DNA sequence: CTGGGGAGGGGGCCC
DNA sequence: GGGGCCCCCTCCCCA
């Protein structure tokens, strides 16, 4: 006979003991703030503590003290509250740090939930953008989703699916039922978890990453490839099956603790964890990459999440970085390079002209123009400037066009590649008027 | 098949 | 922290 409330009751009791500092035999110091806890609970919840306390098992008479500087007390509060309640309080503000801390502490279930949270946030973001761009989309749902979600890792007996996943849309739910603590000991038990790594994986870049990160990683597939690239990768080596992807996650989970491997500002006072490396670096929860700045980590994370918040208003191609969009726009749509596309010679407004082919622009020298028998066609530079000039506002609305401008945009886009438009360009003037895509 | 060039993408770092 | 520049690498196309 099994009493279903026993587990939750037991956890509640332990939580009460923690709050009242009863039987607490472990102190965790986080940036000067002391957290009391039970080593049994920490051992059962975190791979990191398991390793730490295992080494300390022969000295059980001594209270264990651990010090962390890799994350804030607030973050550790979230983690500890989860350990003792199964409830994870995630917000858009803390999710990265909680995930980083969970990675450090080898709490794979927390990492999974954070990943799901981030992914869901991105989904929402994408939906909102799509809705914004699509005037006809009246059926968009999931409005007003609370970005701060409360994840309840249950000890509930009735949780049938041990790996059910939540999204912020769902609000509250169960992480992994009564067996959540098992993950910490046996990360491989996540093999069957339906946890997507991310909505959009970066294109296959394993070779490069291997070089940079000194870690072999399976190829990854982006969903934003150009058609040809997509066709090639989707049916060849670029394709990664769900199981392979999961295997990657498992490999990642099986890897040594972040702090142990990279220093990451951690310090365990009573134990001898190496800490030679620079402190206060930001560790990517998806890969071994470490950056110095949080902003760089945020940028780096986009290559895992596939988030591409910067669409080119001229061709629709999306970019994960504004500078990449700018570069793309200058190169593709502005013909900034003063080089003849055919003969590669340097051209100026006197020796060559800008050719417009659909939304693409490039320069041809007069000789090549004559060779191809293309006559100059007038182009409304003013309109072009209006078309390309971003308006004020947030990053999504910067490119929004007035109705007239929008019309001209559509016309140009629909020009197709067959029609070539020659534009007289004064280089000096163009530089002054330089069009800034998506830029303030 | 191969090499060159274009384009995209990632990291470091400065402002 | 965001924007932007520079550098480097990879992929892809094309001659």
UniProtKB/TrEMBL annotation:
<dbReference type="Pfam" id="PF00096">
    <property type="entry name" value="zf-C2H2"/>
</dbReference>
<dbReference type="GO" id="GO:0005634">
    <property type="term" value="C:nucleus"/>
</dbReference>
<feature type="compositionally biased region" description="Basic and acidic residues">
    <location>
        <begin position="198"/>
        <end position="208"/>
    </location>
</feature>
<feature type="domain" description="C2H2-type">
    <location>
        <begin position="310"/>
        <end position="338"/>
    </location>
</feature>
<feature type="compositionally biased region" description="Polar residues">
    <location>
        <begin position="185"/>
        <end position="196"/>
    </location>
</feature>
<dbReference type="InterPro" id="IPR036236">
    <property type="entry name" value="Znf_C2H2_sf"/>
</dbReference>
<keyword id="KW-0479">Metal-binding</keyword>
<dbReference type="Pfam" id="PF00651">
    <property type="entry name" value="BTB"/>
</dbReference>
<dbReference type="GO" id="GO:0008270">
    <property type="term" value="F:zinc ion binding"/>
</dbReference>
<keyword id="KW-0804">Transcription</keyword>
<dbReference type="InterPro" id="IPR050457">
    <property type="entry name" value="ZnFinger_BTB_dom_contain"/>
</dbReference>
<dbReference type="GO" id="GO:0000978">
    <property type="term" value="F:RNA polymerase II cis-regulatory region sequence-specific DNA binding"/>
</dbReference>
<keyword id="KW-0539">Nucleus</keyword>
<keyword id="KW-0677">Repeat</keyword>
<feature type="region of interest" description="Disordered">
    <location>
        <begin position="143"/>
        <end position="173"/>
    </location>
</feature>
<dbReference type="InterPro" id="IPR000210">
    <property type="entry name" value="BTB/POZ_dom"/>
</dbReference>
<keyword id="KW-0862">Zinc</keyword>
<keyword id="KW-0238">DNA-binding</keyword>
<keyword id="KW-0805">Transcription regulation</keyword>
<protein>
    <recommendedName>
        <fullName>Zinc finger and BTB domain containing 8A</fullName>
    </recommendedName>
</protein>
<keyword id="KW-0863">Zinc-finger</keyword>
<feature type="compositionally biased region" description="Polar residues">
    <location>
        <begin position="234"/>
        <end position="246"/>
    </location>
</feature>
<dbReference type="InterPro" id="IPR011333">
    <property type="entry name" value="SKP1/BTB/POZ_sf"/>
</dbReference>
<dbReference type="GO" id="GO:0000981">
    <property type="term" value="F:DNA-binding transcription factor activity, RNA polymerase II-specific"/>
</dbReference>
<keyword id="KW-0597">Phosphoprotein</keyword>
<feature type="domain" description="C2H2-type">
    <location>
        <begin position="282"/>
        <end position="309"/>
    </location>
</feature>
<dbReference type="InterPro" id="IPR013087">
    <property type="entry name" value="Znf_C2H2_type"/>
</dbReference>
<comment type="function">
    <text>May be involved in transcriptional regulation.</text>
</comment>
<feature type="region of interest" description="Disordered">
    <location>
        <begin position="185"/>
        <end position="249"/>
    </location>
</feature>
<feature type="domain" description="BTB">
    <location>
        <begin position="24"/>
        <end position="92"/>
    </location>
</feature>
<feature type="compositionally biased region" description="Polar residues">
    <location>
        <begin position="143"/>
        <end position="170"/>
    </location>
</feature>
């Amino acid at each position: 006979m099994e009493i279903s409330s026993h587990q939750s009751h037991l956890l509640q009791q332990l939580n009460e003991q923690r709050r009242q500092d009863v039987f607490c035999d472990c102190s965790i110091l986080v940036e000067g703030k002391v957290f009391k806890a039970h080593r049994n609970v920490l051992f059962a919840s975190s791979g990191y503590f398991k390793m730490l306390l295992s080494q300390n098992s022969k000295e059980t008479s001594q209270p264990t003290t651990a010090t962390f500087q890799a994350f804030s007390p607030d973050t550790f509060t979230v983690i500890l509250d989860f350990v003792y309640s199964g409830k994870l309080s995630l917000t858009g503000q803390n999710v990265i740090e909680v995930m980083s801390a969970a990675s450090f502490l080898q709490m794979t279930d927390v990492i999974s939930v954070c990943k799901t949270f981030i992914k869901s946030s991105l989904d929402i973001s994408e939906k909102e953008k799509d809705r914004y761009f699509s005037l006809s989309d009246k059926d968009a749902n999931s409005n007003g989703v609370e970005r701060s979600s409360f994840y309840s890792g249950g000890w509930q007996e009735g949780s049938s699916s041990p790996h059910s996943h939540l999204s912020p849309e769902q609000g509250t739910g169960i992480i992994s039922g009564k067996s959540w603590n098992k993950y910490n000991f046996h990360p491989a038990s996540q093999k069957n978890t339906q946890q997507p790594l991310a909505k959009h994986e970066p294109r296959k870049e394993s070779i490069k990453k291997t070089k940079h990160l000194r870690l072999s990683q399976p190829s990854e597939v982006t969903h934003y490839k150009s058609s040809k690239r997509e066709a090639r990768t989707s049916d060849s080596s670029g394709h990664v099956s769900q199981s392979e992807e999961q295997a990657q996650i498992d490999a990642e989970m099986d890897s040594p603790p972040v702090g142990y491997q990279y220093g990451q500002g951690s310090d365990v006072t009573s134990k001898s964890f190496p800490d030679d490396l620079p402190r206060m670096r930001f560790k990517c929860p998806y890969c071994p990459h470490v950056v110095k700045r949080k902003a760089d980590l945020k940028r780096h994370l986009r290559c895992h999440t596939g988030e591409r918040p910067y669409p080119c208003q001229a061709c629709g191609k999306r970019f994960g970085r504004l500078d990449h969009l700018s570069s793309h726009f200058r190169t593709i749509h502005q013909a900034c390079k003063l080089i003849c596309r055919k003969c590669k010679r340097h051209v100026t407004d006197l020796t060559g002209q800008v050719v417009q082919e659909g939304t693409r622009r490039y320069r041809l020298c007069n000789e090549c123009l004559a060779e191809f028998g293309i006559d100059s066609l007038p182009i409304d530079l003013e309109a072009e400037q209006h078309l390309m000039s971003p308006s004020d506002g947030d990053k999504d609305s910067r490119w929004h066009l007035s109705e007239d401008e929008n019309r001209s945009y559509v016309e140009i886009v629909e020009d197709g590649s067959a029609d070539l438009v020659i534009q007289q360009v004064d280089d000096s003037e163009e530089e002054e008027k330089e069009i800034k895509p998506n830029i303030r």
